[in-house]
Amino acid sequence: MAGSKGTFQPDSDVHISYEDQQKINKFARLNAKLEDLKEEVKVKENDLKSLEDACDEIALFDEDEKIPYLVGEVFILQDTETTQKCLDEAKKRIEENIKELKGQSDDVRSQMSDLKSHLYGKFGSHINLEAEDE
User: Fold this and answer.
1) CA of 2: how far to CAs of 10, 21, 53, 121, 123, in Å?
2) Which of 133, 127, 131 is nearest to 23 (CA)?
3) How many helices (H) and strands (E) does the chain have?
4) Averaged over 22-46, what is the pLDDT?
5) CA atoms of 103 and 4, how far apart (whole Å)
């Protein structure tokens, strides 16, 4: 047990300075932020899929048929063309949002990689920064 990776050995000569502890804490915060971003991307991708399904359904309606469209807390009746345009705009906004979230995730991963290389370089097998599900 004392030799397994990620297990701290109390009798070892590893000293954790204040700066190192700050880096470990920053890594943990970044890891939590990354998980939040991943979850948010999943939610947005599900929203996008729902909008795509709605667009497919609307294509089956007649041109002059009125469709209830939710705006805030109220449904308004719109023709199929207007509803299709609203859905396309919503899809574009979500796609841009997903792209932005993925960019933020990449930035967080980059920061985590820098911290990880520094911390593993200093502490070696005395620290475990790998996620358990990887």
Assistant:
1) 9, 22, 54, 20, 15
2) 127
3) 2, 2
4) 96
5) 35
